[in-house]
Design brief:
It is a single chain. The protein has 5 helices and no strands. By secondary structure, it is mainly α. It has a single domain, classed as DksA, coiled-coil domain (Four Helix Bundle (Hemerythrin (Met), subunit A), Up-down Bundle). 67% of the residues lie in helices and 0% in strands. The structure holds zinc ion. The site of zinc ion has 8 residues, from helix 5.
Length: 111
């Protein structure tokens, strides 16, 4: 049972909204502007370093999510979206709606 075009359209929109959202977050937490945001805000330079480290981790995880979303959008255009990349089975619609950028079906993701 293939995922219906209506559902795919909705997922594509959801992915684009999420991508825009993450890109904005990355603008706030990413390396550009990081120094400006922190200069003079903390007296303790150790705390500044810790905060910067946290933000770098966050920025990395946002970049990972963005890569997954770009990958999912590419599959939506070129084909292969909704197919598990490990076992080749269709990913359930419910799972795609919950996690539109997922690459794996529920059994592969949990193994
Ligand atoms: Zn699978």
């Amino acid at each position: 049972m293939a995922t219906s075009p209506d559902v795919l359209d909705a997922l594509r929109s959801a992915l684009r909204v999420e991508r825009d959202h993450l890109r904005r977050q990355l603008g706030e937490y990413g390396t550009g502007g990081e120094d400006m945001a922190f200069d003079g805000n903390f007296a303790d330079s150790g705390q500044v370093a810790a905060e910067k480290g946290e933000h770098r981790v966050l920025a990395n995880s946002i970049q990972d999510s963005l890569a997954d979303i770009d990958h999912a959008l590419e599959k939506l255009d070129k084909g292969g979206y909704g197919i598990c990349e490990r076992c080749g089975q269709e990913i359930s619609e419910a799972r795609l709606e919950a996690m539109p950028a997922t690459r794996y079906c529920i059994s592969c993701a949990s193994s």
